[in-house]
Amino acid sequence: MTSFLISGIVCALGLSSSVTAVAYGDSVQKSATEKQFSQEFPEGYSFLKHIGGNGPYSERRSYGISRDPPDSCAVDQVIMIKRHGERYPLASTGESIETSLAKLYGAGVTEWKGDLAFLDEWKYYVSNKCWYEAETYSGPYAGLLDAYHHGATYRDRYGDLWNGDVTPFFSSGYSRVINTARKFGEGFFGYNYSTDAALNIISESETLGANSLTPVCYNDNDTDTCDNLPTTMPVFKVAAARLNAQNSGLKLNETDIYNLMTMASFELNNRAFSDWINVFTQDEWVAFGYLGDLSYYYCAGPGDKNMAAVGAVYVNATLSLLNEGPEKAGPLIFNFAHDTDITPIVAALGILIPSEDLPLDRIPFGNPYSIGDIVPMGGHLTIERLSCNATAMSEKGTYVRLVLNEAVVPFNKCQSGPGYSCSLDDYTSILKEELPDYLTTCKVPKSYPQYLDFWWNANTTTDLNYQQGPIGCQEGYTMS
């Protein structure tokens, strides 16, 4: 068999000009010196994974399982809960940031040097205190852009499930959450948003009991660890000494470092670039991120003995939707709430829980409870119901798959279905046996709703699809 050089095929394949393609009959081979896969993983460290829940959305680091449905399966129902998009700091956080900035600028430094040399031109990104609490709308990481893009992406992925009927979707009653829901709706429904989507706003009032996207525990007796978490790390003292040494008169301490790092982690929500990020080392950012992990774990996650019961409200209700199926319950159930409403759900599902409580005096590397992967701004948990044909490994039937920030996370106790999914029967049986009871664990007053039913009693009017009037300064709870 004759071999010959084919430079045209090299160009067509996009191969480097230094690589020779050799044809043997109908096959084309690359030079044996070129690797098919790179052995480098330069993204082993990413700033976005070490800023807790403060900064821009990033997809979850996956286990290598395909995001697309297994070849034998089709998605027939989707249940999603999404955190609001990127925002400015809370007003209380802003106060701490402004205190440290005042200390910085009040030090009498006439010319900034070293890591802070950029301060001669830098300006704080919150020039109007009314922006505190609000979702951002400018820059490539803007919260409203995130929500719209997510809606458009899910239309591409799940658009075949929309049959043209008016589709209710659900938001908790907080301004930035509602705005996220609306932008997602515009992205998903496109030209049809104004007539064929129906936003339902569910109050965040504690009196709603279990009929809420934001249930609370009325038996709040597990806060000792949460109330006494560390707020600084030893490396923050090193950072303060470094910056103080570079600029005479500066007297920053560990708390200032934490506040300035918090400020930096929010800056990208509004701007394309933050000089502050490079002020601090990778080690310092790793420590900062772990403080966020601790906060969510002990205050709104599995480190609080009540949180799995809070998350069980949502998980129990989704079991009903999944078992009713798309014909009865509908194929698309989109929900929008807060980060601390999603972490209890993750706890209730029993996924990403460390083998032991997170230590307060060191960083346990390899910790599965990394908040940058669980609830970044715009973070979301999607439950897919799969209709699958029989394969050599699994029977024909209905299966369930969990997708967190666009990465498949297998259900711990059941992974025997296609694509490491779980049969709906097994998934239902396991959760019904293991889910804690919200009513008794959290001592829900009997005068409050005892179960979630707003999905089954949704409005199909479009009255709330758009903002009614201007958004107030630092507006929080709202039903408009």
TrEMBL record:
PROSITE patterns: HIS_ACID_PHOSPHAT_1 (PS00616), HIS_ACID_PHOSPHAT_2 (PS00778). CDD domains: HP_HAP_like. The keyword Cell wall biogenesis/degradation does not apply. GO terms for cellular component: fungal-type cell wall. InterPro entries: Acid_Pase_AS, His_Pase_clade-2, His_PPase_superfam, Histidine_acid_Pase_euk. Pfam families: His_Phos_2 (PF00328). The active site is at H84, D339. Keywords: Disulfide bond, Glycoprotein, Hydrolase, Signal. Residues 1-21 form the signal peptide. One of its GO terms (molecular function) is acid phosphatase activity. The keyword Glycoprotein applies. Disulfide bonds join C73-C388, C414-C422. Its EC number is 3.1.3.8. Belongs to the histidine acid phosphatase family. This is 3-phytase. It comes from Penicillium angulare.
